[in-house]
Amino acid sequence: VSLKPDGSRRNNASNPDAELFAQVVGTVIHFKYGKLVRLRWFIDQEEFSESVAGDDATKALVPTIGDKELIQHSHETYQFADRIHRKVPIVAFSPSRLGLPVIDDMTYYTRTTLSVKWALEPHTITIASTHNDSICSRDCNLNNLVDVNEELIMRFCELCQCWFHKQCLVVSPATVPTLEELKATRPPQPEDEAEADYLYNSGQITFSGHDFTIWMSLLHRPIQRGYSEYPWLLSFERLLDAVRRHDRAWGCPSDVQDFVTQHLSMAPSLVHLTDKYRAIVQAPYPDIYYYCPDCDSAI
């Protein structure tokens, strides 16, 4: 939720146009004050500046915070329920795991692995916790950090279950990504669109050649976070992970468009733009793959 500043949390009541962001973690009925809400606060990029960073590690983190990123604050307070201004959809994700929904440049988001706290020195903050150790390789060129203000393009290795910065990878000559082994019970699949159409028209399979071509295109897409055409964390990682898991077990579904729609995983504020982002993920994509630094898979 967002609240208008009133001076109860910080010295910012003089800015009536500002919004403060918090997560409602509980409610209580007070015999004197009525309904109160228990809030866990967030701070945004504007508040999280080097001037309030209490140590070098916190200062180093400041430039990596995105325009719409909210950082969890360990501070909690109680506030009057009627002070809540509006509900705000905030996407939470771990930078080291698959799970980021499709977002746009107006979506507020937060990292579940990062939080800050008040420092001993007045009006300063320090990192309370951060768990990015599994980001990239031991030879990472970017200190194993996620920096959304740089060209954030990362590749995910399905076998190692790890994200790697593109800047830390070497191009592979592979023409398809390395996928996990198929299940023994998976039905046989056609070789190409023509065979798929023949089998479909003869009633032997439930998907057309056109569906099969789209499915194979999605199956061969690398799981990537960030796109050069879109300067934010745009990612189709949930969808592509679902495509790979489904293909291992059952192969191409009977209705690929319906499968994409069901697994696209849009942020709550973008559901009405599902057709737009479905077209983006199904558009032709350059087949450039990289070696995984840990297992040499094509990613």
UniProtKB/TrEMBL annotation:
<dbReference type="InterPro" id="IPR011011">
    <property type="entry name" value="Znf_FYVE_PHD"/>
</dbReference>
<protein>
    <recommendedName>
        <fullName>BAH domain-containing protein</fullName>
    </recommendedName>
</protein>
